[in-house]
Design a protein that fits this description.
This protein is of the alpha+beta class. The chain contains 20 helices and 20 strands.
Length: about 650
């Protein structure tokens, strides 16, 4: 698309964001309103179809009608106006929902810097938003050695529209590359994907795949334009490199040149066909001159006109897929589709037998037998616990703790039964694959690695204890200076010290009002039963994380805090419950999030108010143990600023599968 803008208008930014998750309007309106509030505008009324305000010469207009809307912010600048315009349309049949963001400088004032409007990164965090093919990250993508091939595949994606800026490792400073990547990512959010290498091995692997003329190294950066095919590229320097020496000498000025190149490559890019076809209709709908149904009609007409032969082929193929409705067979409260072929005979499932004469035990019977044995051995303790839990009077406070312990015990017994059943039903008998010596050597190496990790965790714990001890002493001195008794209150009366993950989940469900924990008891129980010595440590970390999430959600839902949970912890104050940001990861890697076999285990149930499908991919997680085996994780979705005002925890358990575990 060529520029047809008036001579006194300079395009500073343009992004077309494809958003498949409905509704767009709620998330987009929230982040845009929060951004406008930082500029002094009052909070927008979510239920109002039209909002208009003027503050210190700046004007804001937010309007919507049905499945589309438009926001315009005009801010006075030196000799002119900076206009930020947002227009969106929800998904309709044949078209993924889109959001177009533009920033123009109007007038003859001093040129403004070209960069993404401040709300764009926050919007990118609300869902998996793409340019039509490539996921647009709100922060730099860190590529490790195992993800190089997949990252190169992303670069060569035929439908990619945005440039990809790659930041190489600078051996002179460990923080140089991360700092540069963050600077570039914030300025180009929505119009570029910024990535950096995790280490030199990854960088060497990438350059080996790309070839010398297309590589990047020495602290430099390179912008890979679209389209791009490393095997067929005839003009390597079309993908602009910038040397590390220039960046070290000029600093941000050099990075600004790279940003200008990205903005220049995208500001006047031709819009996608569906956006061209529907943009005029959306404007007419907002003006009251068209109906909402005309948006879908415009998409259909554009596709038919663009390629009538393809549309006819699609119609014929769809016609061939029409078949009679299959017969339904109801069995054990589950509905199954009967075979389409009337002549097909049902076959009983066959299991190969490699000559074993002893029949395999029934997993369900064996699991039940183990569970009954456990309950029988603990019968006395169970009866005592039940009796104490029912006691009234002075023991009522203790009964809460005993009830919790009983619930934990019940969950553990059920978990033990499930584990035994799963092992008996799914695992084959062990086979010796090497000598006993080789096996013992392998086990020894595993134990050494585990011991190294435990030593690191022990040192970290000792350091934390020393730091907290000094803090307590400081607070005690402050209390003494005010004349208050340090030990006059029962500080430990409400102190909860979890002994297991399951106990933590039960306590959280009873005490935390802004955190909802889903069906993850089985996963937590497995860790408690397999690693009883370590589960107490993980439980304490999980309890701290859940309390911090609850404290954050309470503030966020009541508009006392406007950022995300990462911001809450990174800028923590004395009156907040937080956790170290090193325990947090707000995104999964592309290789995990974009592959169904890895994203499916991270998709958990949520209410329909949170997502219409009732299920949601949760990428944000707390690392209860950063490395080693096992490495428990707590996955959550932040809806504290949404319809429910709560945090939804989908999973607490062992590390889920990824590219390294597969």
């Amino acid at each position: 698309m060529t520029s047809t803008m008036p001579p006194n208008v300079t395009r500073l930014y343009q992004a077309v964001l494809r958003d498949v998750r409905a509704p767009i309007s709620i998330r987009l309106r929230r982040v845009f309103s929060e951004w406008a509030a930082e500029k002094g505008f009052p909070a927008a009324n979510p239920g109002s179809p039209l909002t208009e305000h003027e503050v210190n010469g700046a004007r804001l207009r937010m309007e919507r009608r049905g499945d589309c809307g438009r926001y315009i912010l005009d801010e006075p600048c030196d000799g002119g106006v900076l206009q930020t315009r947002v227009i969106y349309a929800e998904s309709v049949p044949g078209m993924t929902g889109w959001v177009m963001v533009t920033a123009d400088q109007r007038g003859h004032g001093a040129p403004l810097s070209a960069q993404a409007p401040g709300f764009v990164p926050a919007y990118l965090r609300t869902a998996r938003i793409t340019d039509g093919a490539v996921h647009l990250e709100d922060s730099p993508l860190v590529v490790d050695e195992e993800e190089v091939d997949r990252f190169v595949h992303t670069l060569a994606e035929p439908l990619r529209r945005v440039p990809v800026v790659v930041v190489s490792v600078d051996s002179s400073s460990s923080d140089a590359a991360p700092s540069r990547a963050r600077y570039l990512s914030a300025a180009t959010a929505g119009v570029a994907l910024v990535a950096r290498f995790g280490d030199l091995r990854t960088q060497d692997r990438f350059n080996q795949v790309m070839g010398h003329e297309l590589g990047v190294f020495g602290g430099g950066i390179r912008t890979y334009l679209a389209p791009f095919d490393p095997a067929a590229e005839r003009y390597p320097y079309r993908h602009r490199p910038m040397g590390g020496g220039m960046i070290r000498n000029e600093g941000d000025r050099a990075l600004d040149k790279a940003i200008e190149g990205v903005i220049g490559a995208t500001a006047y890019m031709r819009l996608p066909d569906e956006v061209i076809a529907t943009l005029r209709v959306v404007n007419r709908v907002l003006a009251g001159r068209s109906e909402l149904r005309e948006i879908a009609e415009a998409v259909h007409s554009a596709r038919a006109v663009a390629d009538p032969a393809r549309e006819e082929l699609r119609r014929r193929m769809m016609a061939k897929t029409v078949r009679p409705a299959p017969a339904m067979v109801v069995e054990d409260s589950r509905t199954e589709i009967a075979s389409q072929s009337p002549s097909a005979e049902p076959k009983a499932p066959q299991r190969e037998n490699a000559g074993a004469s002893v029949p395999a035990p029934d997993p369900s019977e064996l699991a039940q037998s183990v569970a009954e044995s456990v309950v029988k051995e603990l019968r006395t303790d169970l009866e005592s616990a039940l009796s104490l839990a029912a006691t009234s009077g002075p023991l009522m406070d203790e009964s809460h703790g005993v009830s919790r312990q009983l619930a934990v015990l019940t969950a553990h017994v059920a978990g033990l039964r499930d584990i035994v059943g799963a092992r008996c039903g799914n695992e084959e008998p062990p086979h010796v694959t090497g000598s006993d010596t080789e096996r013992l050597i392998g086990e020894l190496e595993t134990l050494r690695a585990e011991h190294k990790v435990l030593l690191g965790e022990y040192e970290e714990a000792v350091s934390d204890i020393r730091r907290m001890t000094e803090r307590v002493r400081h607070l005690e001195r402050k209390l003494a200076e005010t004349g208050q008794s340090v030990y006059g209150t029962a500080l430990g009366d409400d102190l909860f010290e979890p002994a297991s993950l399951m106990e933590t989940l039960i306590e959280a469900r009873q005490r935390l009002t802004h955190v909802v924990i889903g069906d993850t008891d089985a996963a937590a129980t497995r860790l408690d039963l397999h690693h009883p010595a370590l589960s107490r440590i993980w439980a304490a970390k999980a309890w701290d994380a859940l309390r911090a999430l609850d404290d954050f959600a309470r503030a966020r839902s009541s508009c006392q805090f406007a950022g995300g949970f990462y911001d809450w912890c990174a800028t923590g104050s004395a009156d907040r419950l937080t956790i170290p940001v090193g325990m947090l990861s707000m995104r999964e890697s592309q290789s995990v999030a974009n592959r169904p076999k890895f994203s499916a285990p991270r998709t958990f149930a949520v209410p329909r108010e949170v997502d219409p499908s009732g299920r949601l991919l949760m990428e944000a997680h707390v690392k209860l143990r950063p490395v080693g085996y096992p490495a428990p994780r707590l996955y959550f979705h932040d809806d504290s600023g949404g319809a429910t005002g709560k945090i939804w925890v989908g999973y607490v358990g062992d590390h889920l599968p990824n590219t390294r575990t597969n």
